[in-house]
Amino acid sequence: MRKHEEVLANLRQGAMSERRDGSPGVRFSLRSLMIRTDKGPQFIDITAGVAGLVQESSIRNGFAIVFTRHTTAAIRINENEPMLLRDMEDFLRKVAPSHAHYNHNDLGHHTTDVGDGEQPNGHAHCQQLLLGASEAIPLVAGQLFLGQWQRLFLIELDRGREREVVVQMVGE
Question: Which residue, 111, 141, 30, 119, is CA-closest to 72?
Fold first, then answer.
């Protein structure tokens, strides 16, 4: 088994370090959620799924990093209010519209990373650049320490497909 695969296997099992005195140290847990999206842009509330992974980890205090492994999807914290979500979708369409010219969409000139089924998606990469791939959330008493109206979102920016959200929890 390669070294990074070994590390990932230990993290998925909730690996734990020990302090010099033999007492438990910091624990780590790595889990993932698979989310099916329908379209871009689309805000998908993943708060309950992430909270469930936190509870499974048995880490009580620390933090969780919620990360998407995709360059055309984002992770953000915001409010789950339908009209606000519509406003944010409209904002993303205005700031980087899908119909605009993007050099990335000229697939014939790509020198790297062109796979089967590649579609023009320069707009989604530009939108992701503004949003980001991760959020860090404190864990307090085994719960996500979010504000009253805060929710975690996976934001699809491209087209419907299967997406992976990785949640790394660190703490005690």
Answer: 119
